[in-house]
Amino acid sequence: MILSWKERMVTQNITLGPQETKLLFSLEEKGISFFTFSDAKRILRSTDSSVWNVLEGLKRKKRVQQIEKGAYLLVPAKAGYEGHWTEDALVIVPHIIDVYYVGFWTAMNYWDMTEQVPIMVFVVTTRRKRDMEYAYQKFKFVTLSKKKFFGYIEEERSGVKFNISSKEKTIVDGLMHPEYCGGMSEVAKAIWNARKSLGWRTVLEMSKKVRVSIVLRRLGYLLSTLGIEKGISNKIKREGFNGYQFLDPLADKKRLYYSKEFGLIINRTKKELTGWMGY
User: Fold this and answer.
1) d(C-alpha 145, C-alpha 102), whole Å
2) Are 101 and 166 in contact (CB under 8 A)?
3) Which is higher by pLDDT, 15 or 132?
4) d(CA 194, CA 197)
5) Are 145 and 27 part of one and the same domain?
């Protein structure tokens, strides 16, 4: 016997008011998982205070979860009486921000560039947004200028489309901000793991497009250290860099040596950069 939506509510011993029932039934009937306060008000056709009371009641009864101010997630009946339910973090992102792409360490994990699962979901945007937490999942919002905000594609999971940096832009962003990727060792690992699937000409073009010289410097040095893509590395050597910058901003600033070829102060040993290779 297949129970109807309303019958399932009865079997779970949940007492719902008429407005609560109307909102939940309407959302499930339309297949809506994420909704806003405005959506609820449009369905209920009531005052702000009345809608707020309905939502607070549904939160207490664990039929609705608040993602952030004004944004909610419908907990499906299959979550059971206790209401234990969390959506995939990547599916949530499009509902909490408009201009964005998932990037850095999260993108590295998505593209199988690293086996590490970051404790945060890194989201790139052009506008400052406060970091948030939902269902024990932390979201870190990283602001980039519009000139650097490019190189993302659309992927789909659980029927929801979301933006994520391409493999090539993931590497470039990691070189630009290794602090959001677990450090230079993780960036080096990502380059190695993705070396056969990356469009290296695109990586070089994107590295120049962001107009941050440290990106090219680090790219050239890591390629040389890993012994891959010598053609790209040699092109970078011919760029001619002024002054010196640190290879790893997270490491001790006490230098090991200078790399004149790439204009870098090398403050990481090769073993530290490639220890994940296991030899």
Assistant:
1) 15
2) no
3) 132
4) 5
5) no
Rounded to the nearest 10 degrees, how much is the dihedral formed by the CA atoms of 187, 192, 198, 203?
40
Q: Give the domain-ending residue among 64, 85, 106.
A: 85
Indicate if 162 and 190 belong to the same structural domain: yes
DSSP state of 195: T
The model's pLDDT over 67-80, given as tens digits with 9 standing for 90+, comes to 888 888 887 654 44
User: 198 in helix, strand or coil?
Assistant: coil
The phi and psi torsions of 73 (rounded to 5 degrees) equal: -120, 130
Whether residue 242 sits in one domain with residue 108: yes
Residue whose structure tokens are 């449009």: 42
Find out whether 203 and 168 touch, Cβ atoms under 8 Å: yes
Cβ count near 33 (within 10 Å): 18
Residues 176, 160, 25, 43: is their CA dihedral positive or negative?
A: positive
Residue ending a domain, among 85, 102, 119, is 85
CATH number of the domain within which 78 lies = 1.10.10.10
Q: Give residue for tokens 């209401």.
A: 83
Rounded distance between C-alpha atoms, residue 252 and residue 103, angstroms: 26
Report the candidate in 8, 176, 30, 16 with the shortest Cα–Cα distance to residue 78: 8
> How do residues 88-107 score in pLDDT, each as one tens digit?
788 889 888 899 999 999 99
Range of the domain at 58: 5-85
Residue 8 has pLDDT above 70, yes or no: no
Report the pLDDT value the prediction gives residue 189, as an integer from 0 to 100.
97
102: left (phi over 0), alpha (psi -120 to 50) or beta: beta
Asked if residue 121 and residue 247 are part of one domain, the reply reads yes
Give the pair of three-digit tokens for residue 57: 């009641």
Instruction: Of 112-121, 133-142, 245-254, give the lowest mean pLDDT range.
Output: 133-142
Residues 164, 181 share a domain = yes
Same domain, 199 and 165: yes
Pairing of strands 152-157, 34-36: unpaired
